Here is the input.
Amino acid sequence: MKISKLFFSGTFLTFLFLSACSHKSSPTKSNTAAVSTTEVSESVASIPDGEKTYTAKCGSCHKLKDPSHFTMKEWRPIMNRMAVKANLSADEKANVLAFVGTKAKFF
Here is the structure.
């Protein structure tokens, strides 16, 4: 009886160790987040152009906000509202979002 318990415990611990060290599968389509077209356009946007647009167009009307004072979740509605007032094109808006995104806080 003691030997079977010892064998079972050893087998269980070995299985547990091996499963912890096994190769993890890569994410599948079902468990990855959907990427919006806005995020795609931001990923190919020009950060230097965004900084120039932010300085020139946003700074022409008001004091520039430090991008690190906001998260991207906070920057998006700000940009949606202000892009209309600044008459930004879609590319300019994407560039500015890319620029502030490099400096935005995480939480």
Observations:
- The longest helix spans residues 2-21.
- Residues 39-107 form one domain.
- The mean pLDDT is 74.
- The radius of gyration is 25 Å.
